[in-house]
Amino acid sequence: ERLGLKGKTISYARVDVGGFNDAPGTGAEPSEVPSRGIICGAPNLDEGQHVLVALPGTVLPGDFEISARKTYGHISDGMICSELELGLGEDHSGIIVLEDFLGAENLPPVGTNMREPLGLGTELLEINVTPDRGYCFSMRGVAREHAHSTGATFTDPVTRIQPAPAREGGFPVSLEDVAPLHGTPGADRMVLRTVRGVDPAAPSPEWMKRRLTEAGMRPISLAVDITNYVMLDLGQPLHAYDLGLMRAPMVVRRARAGERLTTLDGVDRALHTDDLLITDDGGERVLGLAGVMGGASTEINPETADVLVEAFHFDPRTIARTARRHRLPSEASKRFERGVDPQLAPYAAQRVVDLLVEYGGGVVDETVTDVDTTTPPEPVRMDGHLPARHVGVDYTVEQVAETLEQIGCVVVREGDWLTVTPPSWRPDLTQGVDLVEEVARLRGYDAIPSVVPAAAAGRGLTADQRRRRAVMRALAEHGLHEVLSYPFVADTHTRLGVPEDDPRRVMVRLANPMADDQPFMRSTLLASLLETARRNVGRGNPLAVVEAGMVTRATEAPGPSPLPAVAVLPSDDDLAAIRGSVPSQPWHVAAIAAGPLAPGGALGEARAADWADAIELARLVGRTVGIEIEPHAGVYAPWHPGRCAELRIGTEVVGHAGELHPRVLEDLDLPERTVAFELDLDAVFAAVPEDQHHVVPVSTFPAAKEDIALVMASDIPAATALGVVRRAAGELAEEVRLFGDYRSEALGADQKSLAFALRLRAPDRTLSAEEIAGVRQSVIAAAEAELGARLR
User: Fold this and answer.
1) Which terminus of the chain faces fewer neighbouring Cβ atoms within 10 Å, N or C?
2) Mean pLDDT across the stretch 592-605?
3) What is the pTM of this model?
């Protein structure tokens, strides 16, 4: 029944589904003939057709569940399906009519479950292939591996193909690779076959289209489907050209500067001079990117009757670079870049030719083009006991030889030594350790014992490693949380207010960064730690973070590193040159804090961290390793110029601490008054004396206490005054600390009073009053001489 809705083709059909028709009393609409009522919008629906129906409860691809619902005034009790809805193809212009889809002579009985006849019930196996197993990108390779793992007999499908030998007169092809990568020609095997008189309207067989669909490929036309099918079956990528559009001869060459190509995906691409191209007309017209994707000028079309079949073998590195350069991964490039069997091309081409003749009615040209410059695999000579020594399993020489023969190697035994010739499909087997891996893999990793190696006596953490751990433990005990950030950063120094001539702006740029917006190695820990702090603040976490890690000083980079071969151990000279090319990477420690370092409680309120805390945390690092770090007033981005301390050991500057600049905090969305410090740990550790770890006897004599208040200019840093008092107190001073800072109008606007507490003790006697007074007088005299101070 045509419902006659304006602008739409809507029909209400009564469909006989055999034993699944409406049962009496179900509430379905009455009908003279048992059937189901279904609403359908397909324009090709007609009475008397055999169609595919999805009943309520069916789940179609895309997790689309069918249910009965009322629409257009009728109950629609199912759905009549198209190819797209069932995942059988791309056609959604109408429903599947089985007379056309299967043929009138192949119609099954009404009510038949069509999952099996249509291949919809097939169980599919999804396999993740590792990059070193390129031969497993084919059913041939997977079957071989299945035989290895189960012990089943493997019959190579290639042995059933008899390729025609090369004969003169075939379509001419030549290689003109004047700039091969690493000296390797772009192509070393080129096979061309011609099939004439192929029926352009001949459809691909249903079994082939089903297998292509199950493998994730879209059926297109007979010639294209056959090349794709053979590629999936044997592993050799192929390409089919319309012979009538070709201009002899074909030339394989590198791209010229300024050349462009419109590939089959419709994208116009600028070519690179390292791209390998398939061309015709003597190299003048570009047909495609070799091993990646063809062009549009000679593609198979609905009128193609004469087909030229291409089966070439290309250099894996060339194809990999081209595919990545153009961001054009394809089924062909995935195989070529992992290594295709160089001897497979004539067999794959013959298989395509046979299928075109069988299903397209074509006639094969007797002429065959086969340009072969491949070299056989190099034999590997190996001690038969090498796998046992490397793996730790007692493999016999007989087991090793038998295992290598299983993977296709030719093994010649001479006593305990084996001469192994790898098969052509395993270009990765080039040395003895590669063969050892194959023996271990096929014999079973579960047979390899787990043995924990014994640590060599007398070894452990280095002195600097122990010091780093002690420093981080001390900082954690004072309320900081250790974090780890990536050393890769953007050029953030402008945001941090770093001057243009600051050496921190000179950074190492990575040739292949993990992220395009972070191509540099950090020259300061704060460059990455500030981003960590910003993220923690944004998530509502307390801000008190610390990190120890390496920074990279690009100003000290000597030059580029050599690139030794990967197949052999680098020489001592190469190793020395590699180490010499690495820039200096000292260890730093940095911390950022805002708010309280510890929460308040019943015993008192929390106090927010300030610039003094940053300086004290930095000095804590020094005290942890037995070094006194002295703060001095300084100016250094990204710190506040009036609240920045320059941290020194003697005269050497080892870091900075204080409050960060307000503009930096605003730009990074950090809290006001955020403080930070950064220290060069390597410089701090270098100042630790070698004989530092000596035992100091505990004195049993009483301590004397003296308090001294000194009036001095208000612009004299307290740390400077403390250093003067400590030096003047001499060896008798067990402790000197500042405990008071007093200012008043009586002292003067430019004066302040600093009060120091001295604990004095001698290791071998009780101090006399004269000795104590002498220390006091020394302190007063030194303060007057060096600071211009007076006793309050």
Assistant:
1) N
2) 83
3) 0.60
